[in-house]
Design brief:
GO terms for molecular function: transmembrane transporter activity. This is Major facilitator superfamily domain, general substrate transporter. Keywords: Membrane, Transmembrane, Transmembrane helix. Its main location: membrane. It is found in: Membrane. The protein has 804 residues and is mainly α. Among the domains are: 213 residues, Growth Hormone, Chain: A, CATH 1.20.1250; 161 residues, Growth Hormone, Chain: A. 75% of the residues lie in helices and 3% in strands. The chain is built from 24 helices and four strands. Strands 1-2 form a two-stranded antiparallel sheet. Strands 3-4 form a two-stranded antiparallel sheet. A hairpin with a 2-residue loop joins strand 1 and strand 2. Helix 5 packs across helix 6. 37% of the residues are buried.
Amino acid sequence: MPPHPEEAERDGHDEQRPLLADDTTPVGQQQQQQQQQQPQQQQPPPPLGYSRRRLLLSGVLVLVAAIQGAALVNPAMNALVEGAACQQLHPEVKGPDRYRDRACKAADVQDRLAMVMGWESTWALVPALATAIPYGVFMDRRGPKVMATLVSLGGLLVQVGELTTTLYPNVFDLRGIWVASFLGNLVGGGPLGFEATQYAVASLIATEANRQVSIPTHGRHLLLLTLPPLLDRTLVFFYLACLVQLNFAVSGPLVYWAMNASPVVAQLLGMALMTLSLLLTFTLPSGLTTTKHVAKAAVAPASVRQAFAKTWRASKQAATEFLQLFRRDAQLALLLVSLVFSTIGARQSLIRQQYATNRYGWTWAEAGAIISLVSLVSLLVLAVLVPAASAWLLTFKTPLGKDLFLARLGILALLVGSLLVGLSRTTAQFVAAQAVYAMDACYPPAVTSVVASVAAAGGGGRTGLVYVTVVFMRMVGSLVAGPLVFGVFRVGLRLGGDWIGLPFFFEAALQVFTVAVTFWVRERRVGSETVSDGEGAVGVAEYGRPDQGKCLSAFRAYKTKYNQVKRCPNGFRSEFSLEIIIIIIIIIIIIIIIIIIIIIIIIIIIIIIIIIIIIIIIIIIIIIIIIIIIIIIIIIIIIIIIIIIIIIIIIIIIIIIIIIIIIIIIIIIIIIIIIIIIIIIIIIIIIIIIIIIIIIIIIIIIIIIIIIIIIIIIIIIIIIIIIIIIIIIIIIIIIIIIIIIIIIIIIIIIIIIIITIVIKQQQRLSLIITIINSTPALYDLSSTTPMYLTKTLEIAALAFLGVR
């Protein structure tokens, strides 16, 4: 087993130092020192790759335990803080009910939850940012083992403090969570130290830093074996991201079960897994560092003042190198700044669970389990889509070009996913939007590799500091994201309704800058690249400056066509880039299609609104007509009833008169003629009544016929209007389809024309390279003649190509 760096310093050498270095102690003196010291136990030589395999196994175990613990404590802490805030604001809610009571979903409780958790992430990052450079130097010198132990210990202390604060809300103010987060993350640097340790271990597995294996022989540590690199650095980063997403994916059932039991159970189980992660850090191999410096032998223990002075000097040097990363190159500076914006946009995971519980009525267990879906999609992207896309992209792109392409796809997924989450109104839409959002999983590892490549192109040397800088910029974004995103979310909560999705639109707006930067960055290569035609290496394209590498695509096209060994001339320049033109064309087409779709949607919405308004007007008219008809019928019925009553009264009066007349006739013995007259009068009255009734019936029948005719006319008018509307809609849809077809045909024609022009320009470029390379004198002229002659050749070539 390789010794710990402290043991190596006491011995006067370490495993990364050559045996016959200039400052090595002579053999005689070394033997005397070994006789004075306790003899070390002889160990058998470890097998080849021992450090790498042990580092890989231990690192995976530590990461699995830590992520499973984090997956449990994140939703648990949200529920615990909500319950504590609910108990403080609503004292009537007590006991375990505070984790499930609907009163805890009130606006005041959710506002306090957003405030506490938003600033908690900031207070967690303040010590991480303050100690970033010292911990970066510390990890460069001492290796990832000690750093991983400190990070695990600090994370465990944070969870202990936060659990104590939330379990006793009547004793502790909830802002005590900020204090616990701040103090705990001073140990190990918190999330920044955790991510930096991940990248450092992954880099040691993949790159030169862990290729040398020390084999102790007779008490001496010799650099005897050198291992070949096993994996590409970018591939290791993607494997690391896959492992993280796989852990989160499989943690879903465990989180759901634990949260259904109780948030306290989930928190305690997560802390137990974090304790296991802390214990597993002691299995990491010692003696591995992220820099190639050689530790000098310590003759005597240094004083505390000397140790502080040494640490201060190292921190100042690291700070200087940190600033040089921004001064060295504009592309590198913009990439690092864009990490801040992309991190703010990616921090919707902070509010995702609270958003789901508020808008869709989910429980915290259900909201915690959504991480499984997100992680499964991310795992699919990282484990299936990214390797397949990488293999395909590497057939016509360099590794840096491949990483740039994947980073661009990832940031576009983040932009579109944020918009879709904000627009989601149902649970199904929210889940689908989360799946789209999770497709940005390829962005962090890809952009990290891009930053490392760009930094290496500028002459960067310290791997640990580069990765700490990457994580540092992300943590700056996280530092701002906490209060910012939760502040916007609190505004959305106060506005209510669809405004609750306001933070997602805000995050999408921030990604416009990151998208612009990732599409602006160009490939830049260092060293040389061997070009193969499938049968072997057929040539080497040398490039050291950015302008010397721009002809590489033309060189490959020429090599493919002529299958000859050629060389890109050092003085030749061209701004021609087929991939960039195709990407720009695709972006323009996507924008045009999106605009067309938006216009069509707006037209359809306007048509639907007009139709709805017309239908509403027709319905109102029909209702008014029906009401008028009903009123007329009621009036007619009332008139008929009045007439009938009058007739009945008249009949009664006539009968009374007849009775009186009969009585009078009986009394005075009226003659029979009078009786006949009376009978005739009665008959006449009856006939009149019958005639009146017949007239009334005829009038009613006529009114009913008129009403039926009016209703039929109204129905016919409505049918005609509906038919006209349908015809208008069909005509509009046909016109829209014709316009879309014409636009698509125009776009296809433009694409064909542009691709034809591009191919012709590439053929001309290949021809120019053929002319230049086939004339040996041109190489001599490029290296020996004055600069103006070389410029003349370049201008002539560019004029022939039509490139300005």
